[in-house]
Amino acid sequence: MNRTAVLALRLAGPLQSWGASSRFTRRTTESAPTKSGVIGLLASAAGLERGDDRRLAPLAALRFGVRADQPGTRIRDFHTAHHPDTDKSMPLSERFYLADAVFVAAVEGEHTLLKALHEAVRAPMYAPFLGRRSCPPAGPIELGVYEDARLEDVLESVPWQASGWYRRRHRHRPPDTLTVQREKAADEPEATDTLRDQPLSFAAAHRRHAVRAVVTTQVPLPPNPPDTTPRHDLFEALSHVPDDESA
Q1: Are residues 217 and 177 in contact, defined by beta-carbon separation less than 8 angstroms?
Q2: Residue 247: what pLDDT?
Q3: pTM (2 decimals)?
Q4: Nearest to 72 by CA among 203, 165, 171
Q5: How far apart are CA 67 and CA 176, in angstroms?
Q6: What is the pLDDT of residues 112-146, one digit of tens each?
Q7: Between vectors from CA 24 to CA 20 and to CA 30, what angle results, nearest 5°?
Q8: Using an 8 Å Cβ cutoff, are 138 and 13 in contact?
Q9: In whole angstroms, what separates CA 1 from the centre of its chain?
Q10: Is 162 exposed, middle or buried (0-12, 13-18, 19+ CB in 10 A)?
């Protein structure tokens, strides 16, 4: 019997954008990373080419979930461009982003596959991005592989990944719970929502997605990880200056 495991990722950056229904000149973002976006990140890290549907299939079959540790702020950008050959103005478009957001994304599946994806994320063939190529991650994204684990348990137990400044801002009133959006388990009766972000093909000529069932729940706020952000206080240096020099 194949062992199952869960690979967890920390998705944080100045900007993220996870479109599931963007069309024409209006490019929206969901409020959390999409399955197609995260599977695309893993596929590019492993070196899959866009049209390689055979190698994409086992990645698309992984069960996916995401936890919102720092929801971020939705912002809108008016985008202008010129045709590279004719220099004519292209249609004005509006693009939406999540600013200063942090998520924990996780995929559940066969242990050997997830170990290979974990290694790929640590040394990616192609650079990862958070939905769009203009949205690079702020740091390392891998949080490790959890062996013999369930998606629900990992999304409930991984320490809170919010930025240091965000946790300090909410230190007197931290959130009681965090929102989790995940695919339903086999023994669950039904889902509460659907999203068209189940990847079938990333080929440029025929990119295709299917609908998947989604369950939205709340989990208790996990413990904080140690804040390793270096403390930076310019006035500390003045405490070592003699009084006659600082006057």
Answers
A1: no
A2: 43
A3: 0.84
A4: 165
A5: 14
A6: 999 999 999 999 999 999 998 889 999 999 999 99
A7: 25
A8: yes
A9: 31
A10: buried
Q: What is the pLDDT of residues 187-230, one digit of tens each?
A: 787 767 888 999 999 988 788 999 998 999 999 999 775 555 55
Encode 165-202 in three state secondary structure: HHHHHCCCCCCCEEEEEEECCCCCCCCCEEEEEEEEEC
- Rounded to 5 degrees, what are φ and ψ at 186? -65, -30
Q: Residue 240 carries which DSSP code?
A: G
- Report d(CA 238, CA 223) in Å as an integer: 36
**Amino acid of residue 30:** E
Q: Do residues 4 and 108 make contact, with C-beta atoms less than 8 angstroms apart?
A: yes
What secondary structure does DSSP assign to 50-94, as a single string? TT-HHHHHHHHTSEEEEEEEE--EEEEEEE--B-TTT-PBPPPEE
Q: Which residues contact 152 (CB under 8 A, 6 or more apart)?
A: 65, 180, 182, 185
Distance, CA of 38 to CA of 93 (rounded, Å): 25
